[in-house]
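I had to read the description of the data format several times before I understood it. Each protein is reduced to its one-letter sequence and a matching series of backbone shape codes. The format is easy to grasp once an entry is in front of the reader. For illustration, here is how one protein appears when written out as sequence plus structure tokens:
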Amino acid sequence: MMMPGVYILMMMMMMMMMMMMMVMVMMMMMMMMMMMMMMMMFMMFMMLMMLMLMMIMIMMMIIIIIIIIIII
């Protein structure tokens, strides 16, 4: 009489385990995606910073040239 209940319980446990595994995999995937996004963002930020630096350098050069011209 008890066997069907145990079978159902086992099935439920298996389902729960499967769900947990799926959730874990999803979490891992999400983490990986987040890491990738973070890396991409970091790279973009670095590129932007480099561009900003380049722009500043160019501006400085232009200002220096203007000053030299004014002095001359």
The first helix runs from residue 2 to 71.
